[in-house]
TrEMBL record:
It comes from Basidiobolus meristosporus CBS 931.73. It comes from the Eukaryota. Transmembrane segments: none annotated. This is Phosphoserine phosphatase. PANTHER family: PHOSPHORIC MONOESTER HYDROLASE, UPF0655 PROTEIN YCR015C.
Length: 198
């Protein structure tokens, strides 16, 4: 699926005429490549924030558990983490995302749950909260429309500047910390660990 077709899907989701689950299915309909071809193309064209590795290293040093909560494809996310931050670090991150089934280069999503999102991130956030207890402070870092349900569950919310999640926060008057890259998130979390203030 090209950028223009993906934008049409995104616009339909924003307008409410298409849910995330069906949007993902439409996006998958446009894929006709092997797993290996997809990985090669994505690694050549996808930017990974270089400061994310520093962020993960800091969280590990402070025993702060990290979970990637995504409507994307879990095995792809795991491969990217392995490649860009190394397997030692990536093995410390829990990934909660959709799966994929590939037959004859045709991709079909394997949804994380039965929600209209395919993966309702708020349900995952609640599950993680239950496992860590009531004293845990939940930080969520996001940028897109699929992050809105999880954003409601966060104690501290970071929303990427100029993206859909920030637009929603402004519209709904939800308190958030704007960021452009993970180095800014890292500084804010370091400050919070020391002072309990953002």
């Amino acid at each position: 699926m090209g950028a223009e077709a993906k934008q049409l899907v995104d616009d339909a989701i924003k307008q409410g005429s298409l849910n995330f689950r069906d949007g993902l299915l439409r996006e998958f309909d446009g894929i006709n490549v092997s797993w290996e071809e997809a990985l090669k193309l994505l690694k050549a064209t996808t930017h990974v924030d270089p400061s994310f590795k520093d962020f993960v290293e800091y969280c590990n040093s402070e025993n702060l558990p990290l979970t990637v909560v995504s409507c994307g494809i879990g095995p792809l996310i795991q491969d990217f983490l392995d490649t860009f931050i190394g397997t030692d670090l990536s093995s410390t991150i829990q990934v909660e995302a959709n799966g994929v089934r590939i037959e004859n280069n045709k991709w079909k999503p394997v949804y994380h749950d039965d929600s209209e999102f395919g993966h309702d991130k708020s349900l995952t956030m609640r599950k993680v909260k239950e496992s860590l207890g009531t004293d845990a402070v939940f930080v969520f870092v996001g940028d897109g429309l699929s992050d809105i349900s999880a954003a409601r569950e966060a104690d501290i919310l970071f929303a990427k500047k100029g993206r859909d999640l920030e637009e929603w926060c402004i519209k709904e008057k939800v308190e958030y910390v704007p960021f452009e890259n993970f180095s800014q998130v890292l500084l804010a979390i370091q400050k919070f660990v020391l002072t309990r203030e953002i």
